[in-house]
Design goal:
The protein is mainly beta and 397 residues long. Helices cover 5% and strands 39% of the residues. The protein contains three helices and 24 strands. It is globular, with a radius of gyration of 22 Å. The N and C termini lie far apart (50 Å).
């Protein structure tokens, strides 16, 4: 009788929920006293089933590759940090592209971001961001040029700088430098706050170009519907502010911008930058100083600042990002794929609305600098270093 009652109670209670899977991150946080603002803001569980991938090498011998893009014919155009552009052919051979801008390649500087014009097939326009040497220092700049191929050679023709991050600063860190075209033809430009204590506070200054996400037209001008257009105390090109060093950016399936920025010691952030919003740095952060001390007052939330959608502590070292819209990995559909310099692999974030549902780590034993989804539905990543490679990730067994 007692057994029958137990069975009946179990049936009435319904199925027992499976225990949540452990998070991908297993190391202790650098800031154990900091707590997330809402459930799932950090250390999301791994998916129920791990993804198996087969990895092959598409190209090698790329010195400090930073960004790459697929041309309409399937070839790859890539930037190298030292100031070179290369065309990568299907057989892995490379063709140098002349006419790249001069760069200050010290530290984290160099030839960095790359984006093709939305109408590249007809206008052959290429946009690059780079650490431009200037009197008194350098800064992140964006140039536009036309890719010309003649007689087996390639060059950038008519190179013109269309945008300059100001003020100029004599440093060698935090250039940001991802370029993303929106569906309306506007260009998002991410930058950093130049790292140093004397500059980082300008991320909160609307009159400074440090620590911002910009939205510009293809000629470098500010769209009239930008959030600070018409204000005398703000740069009209600013889209959002309070950022540290944004090196990952992509559009979601609705055409909205998402970014991932480097935190200090802990505090890498996934954000969905919205117009005119303040993302907190350096006054609000989920990280600590490299020395171990607090950043500012050590607060993680404050009225008037936005919370990150997700954060990492310890860091993954984010660089490069793509939304998966291919067919080879159905479970990754609409997931955000983020390159990990510190985690040395691909970080797969599956979303539920505007929240991270699961986080999966695909180990690649290499610092990942950029991520793209290829025309064949495979995932391509660029490895960082003197002997950089482009790897192809396809479903494995």
């Amino acid at each position: 009788m007692r057994r029958a009652a137990l069975i009946l109670a179990t049936l009435l209670a319904g199925p027992v929920a499976a225990a949540p899977r452990p998070p991908a991150e297993t190391q202790p946080p650098n800031a154990p006293d900091q707590t997330p603002a809402f459930p799932g803001q950090t250390r999301a569980p791994q998916p129920d089933e791990a993804t198996r991938v087969a990895v092959s090498t598409v190209a090698r011998g790329l010195a400090g590759i930073w960004s790459f893009a697929f041309l309409p014919d399937g070839r790859i155009l890539a930037t190298e940090k030292a100031g070179r552009l290369r065309l990568i052919l299907p057989d892995g051979r490379t063709v140098p592209v002349d006419g790249a801008p001069k760069v200050d390649a010290r530290g984290q500087g160099g030839l960095l971001g790359l984006a093709l014009s939305p109408t590249f097939a007809s206008d052959r326009s290429v946009f690059v961001s780079f650490s431009e040497p200037r009197p008194g220092g350098n800064g992140t700049s964006v140039a536009r040029a036309r890719l010309v191929e003649e007689g087996g050679r390639a060059r950038l023709d008519g190179l013109q700088v269309i945008f300059r991050q100001m003020p100029t600063y004599d440093g060698d860190k935090h250039y940001g430098s991802r370029l993303v075209f929106a569906g309306d033809g506007a260009l998002f430009v991410t930058v950093g706050e130049r790292s140093d204590r004397q500059t980082r506070g300008q991320a909160q200054d609307l009159g400074s170009g440090l620590g911002k996400v910009f939205r510009i037209r293809a000629d470098g001008s500010a769209p009239e519907d930008n959030p600070f257009a018409g204000r005398r105390d703000a740069l009209p090109t600013i889209w959002s502010y309070g950022h540290r060093n944004v090196q990952a950016a992509a559009l979601d399936g609705q055409g909205r911008l998402w970014t991932v920025e480097h935190g200090p010691r802990g505090g890498d952030e996934l954000n969905r930058p919205q117009p005119g919003r303040n993302y907190g740095w350096p006054e609000v952060t989920y990280g600590i100083e490299y020395s171990g001390g607090k950043v500012g007052r050590g607060i993680t939330r404050r009225e008037g600042t936005e919370q990150p959608v997700y954060y990492w502590d310890p860091v993954i070292g984010p660089s490069g990002m793509a939304r998966y819209d291919g067919a080879l990995f159905p479970a990754w559909r609409d997931a955000m794929l983020v390159g990990g310099l510190v985690s040395e692999g691909l970080v797969v974030l599956r979303l539920d609305g505007d929240r991270v549902a699961t986080e999966e780590r695909i180990p690649l034993d290499a610092r990942i600098r950029d991520v793209k989804v290829g025309p064949d539905g495979a995932v391509y990543v660029a490895t960082d270093g003197r002997d950089g490679r482009i790897l192809r990730l396809a479903p494995g067994r």
